[in-house]
Amino acid sequence: MRAIGSKLRRRSNVSSLFEQLESRRFLNGTLMVGPSATYHTIQAAVNAATPNTTIQVAPGMYVEQVTIPAALTGLTIQAMQNQDGPHNPPPNSSVATVNAMNPNKDNSSYIVAPAVMTGNMAIVDDLASGFQLKGFVVEGPSQGIGFGVLIEGGATSVQIIQNHILHIHDVPASGNQTGRAVVVTGGSSAMINQNFISDYQKSGIEITGAGSVGAMMNNLVVGFGPTNLFIDQNGIEVVFGASGTVSNNIITGNIDLTGTSEDGGILLFNSGQTIVNNNISYNNNGDIILDGPSNSAATSLTDYPHGTMVMNNETYGATLDGIDLFDGANSVTISNNNSHNNAVDGLFIDPTSEGNLVVGNHFLQNFQSGTGFDIEDATVTNGSNAVMGPLGTGNLYSNNNNQFGTANFGVIILGTDLHFIDSSSNNDHVQIHPAGSSNTGSTGVQIQAMLSGVNFQYTYAQSFPNIFVLLGGGNDQVTFDNNLTMNAMVSAGNGNDNIQTGLSNTTVMLGDGTDQVHLGNGNNVVTLGNGQDTVQAGNGMNTVMAGDGQDHVTLGNGSFNSVTLGNGMQDNVQMGNGSNNTVTVGNGQGAQVHLGDGSNDNVTVGNGQGDQVQIGKGNFEVVVVGNGDDNVTLNDGSNDTVTLGTGKDNVHIGNGNNNTVKWPLLGNPQTQIQFGSGVNNVIIRF
Hints:
Layout: E1 2-3, E2 25-26, E3 30-33, H1 42-48, E4 54-57, E5 60-63, E6 66-68, E7 76-79, H2 95-100, E8 109-112, E9 122-126, E10 132-134, E11 137-139, E12 147-151, E13 158-161, E14 164-166, E15 180-184, E16 189-193, E17 196-198, E18 203-208, E19 213-217, E20 220-227, E21 234-239, E22 243-247, E23 250-256, E24 261-262, E25 264-269, E26 274-277, E27 280-282, E28 286-291, E29 309-311, E30 314-316, E31 323-326, E32 333-335, E33 338-340, E34 347-349, E35 357-359, E36 362-364, E37 375-377, E38 396-398, E39 410-414, E40 417-422, E41 429-434, E42 445-451, E43 454-460, E44 466-471, E45 477-480, E46 487-491, E47 498-500, E48 506-509, E49 516-518, E50 525-527, E51 534-536, E52 543-545, E53 552-554, E54 562-564, E55 572-574, E56 582-585, E57 592-595, E58 602-605, E59 612-615, E60 622-624, E61 631-634, E62 641-643, E63 650-653, E64 660-663, E65 672-675, E66 682-685
Parallel strand pairs: 3-4, 4-7, 5-8, 6-9, 7-10, 8-11, 9-12, 10-13, 11-14, 12-15, 13-16, 14-17, 15-18, 16-19, 17-20, 18-21, 19-22, 20-23, 21-25, 22-26, 23-27, 25-28, 26-29, 27-30, 28-31, 29-32, 30-33, 31-34, 32-35, 33-36, 34-37, 35-38, 40-44, 41-45, 44-46, 45-47, 46-48, 47-49, 48-50, 49-51, ...
Antiparallel strand pairs: 1-24, 2-3, 39-40, 41-42, 42-43
């Protein structure tokens, strides 16, 4: 917002034991919560848990506040009936329509705010690293409520997955600056993925404070809709020095009617470096707002340090502007966005925000109120800050489809960074090789490029810490020498693209098409559209998100990798021996997921037929499969949990101990479950 049991080795035709949710505690790994279980409240189970415990919660209403202490690392609290991932609405859907499309499932597990809350006023308060909350309805309202889910105290590697987080507001809703659905603060880090968040008072998702980091992806975030409550409501916030990635979310319904504030779909306020990529933000006061610096302030393009990236987003229906830059929002890359049909401006940049790169965007059919522009840039038009943007503004524009009508392309040095720019639909080629005495690029680079049909060949006797390749549609090829160590960012539109980079930290954002991406051992982020894509990366920490299509993802031995794929056929994911990896695959058929010997991995596959999941000898693995006929093989690790759907599944677990298979009462009687020679392995019928 901006102001203005026992050992068990048998096959699954056993039906007498574990048919009901009787009172039981699973040694060294799993605790049960439910009306007939040993623990009747979630907090009681938390109090009895040890690190790396899994708590399974039966359907029902649990009116309580839940606190996870810092010492209880690796805790998983999982509903036995997961919520669906968000059902994304048709374009321009109202708040009421979006909410109606996302009902809570029957037999849900609810964590409900008490009428009188205490402490931090949070329904779920986590201080422990490695915590996972999955599949719940977390629900208010309650007078004075502070938070739905609070992650604090430096907790790291937290996962909030596939929950419905609803009605986090006072009774009745008020203008108090409280009521935040999910907050990550105090130097904590979290992945917030596939949640439906609606009817919050202040914010949907908020990452706040220096050192706090959030990866927010595939969420549906819905505000009150038009309101005069003076609440300064925002959908997703990254604020006060926090940083993160905001990708593949839909945000709507954050609208102040009083005229005293600009409520945002996505708000970055004095944030650290943040990537905002491939989101749809619509029908807010301002759909994407950057307020304050996200890096050291730049006074001209010669002082250009790369900052936040706003790329491949769609904004429309804002009561004010689609994209805003305020109060020294400097050094931002705004690329390949579609900002249209907003009431005032498609893009507004105030006089203090300079040194920004605006390339390859579509700003069309804005100023629907009769006032405004597709682009309104209020930076100075003369003096030392006037650079080569249109009309002498303090920002650089290239090949945007808007009232300026510029059509620039080429190879540009901005400060210490090298940019390749062409947002046309030509088939572009970029090659970068080391020059000088070093093969890492530290003594220079040699470039060969064809951009918009024009050839470029240069040798630079200087190093570039960052190289940016910003291309439009077409079948593009980008090749970095394998030994280069500078950071890379490659963005391209629809087409069959081929990207290869070296040993750097790399961000790749591509549209629809049959894409090939080959990356080194850095920490990489890859976002792809629909198509038959192939991604290969080394031993770093990788995040891969791809749409529908027959995708193949191969990663090395790094930990904390995340792979999210759509509904394509025969997806294939292979990872090495790292730990804390997450794989989510949609409802296509024949998916294959193979992970190595790391621990604390989480694999979820949808309702397609013939999916196969195979994991090595790690411990504390979690596998959830949908209603297709699936095969799950876990080797000799312990404390693993497998949750089955209603299909005819085949589960084989090796010689570890304390493993659990959850099998629905309505599951196919031909399902086969086999344990090895370990002890305390159990089947739960639910």
